[in-house]
């Protein structure tokens, strides 16, 4: 698999993209997934940085941004901005979320409107030669396996893909292996992270995880948590794009260790 780092992991540290890229290359990562906020902030520096990434043998597999779905004009503007950023960074994929409301809390007319918006977005990015990914995530239309499968059917567009966040799938109560078997043909990227106990999953709520003073209790390296990645990793296809997310302290040390352990596990499993 192709293992990438997420710049969102460095959101509270003073690190330039050049520093992150040189470190990622030294640690033999394959690429750097750019948080949309970072990609936009680097607008004036993107050309030399794109060249640097290429020289280091790194790619930008995906721009991870946020597209509001409640107002058509806002949706169209955000699609245009993220598509331009993806083009500038030579990223093939754009990730967003399927709304900002749990599937259980949506009325039928609300779901129908969000489905229409997502279908528009799929066509927009398809015209630009880019894949649109929605992330399996609580508080969205992709917050459970049944709702995600239903959404794929409702949108009914070949350019709607899944960013399979294994922990959030597990959080929903689904078995990640079984869920991936159902979503395999629609999955274009993976996010991997872990937690020490299901009771501590609230630390990944946006209001906490984006706060510099937020709680980090329970965040653990990939192979030390409640989700048993040794059971899930063998099911990730060869050549798949995987991004490691880490929101705790010692970002470089943890990401490097997780990457090394994944590679050792793959070697042993092979």
From TrEMBL:
Leader sequence residues: none
Pfam families cross-referenced by the UniProt entry: AP_endonuc_2
Domain of life: Bacteria
Domain Xylose isomerase-like TIM barrel: 22-250
Protein name per UniProt: 3-dehydroshikimate dehydratase
Natural source organism: Domibacillus enclensis
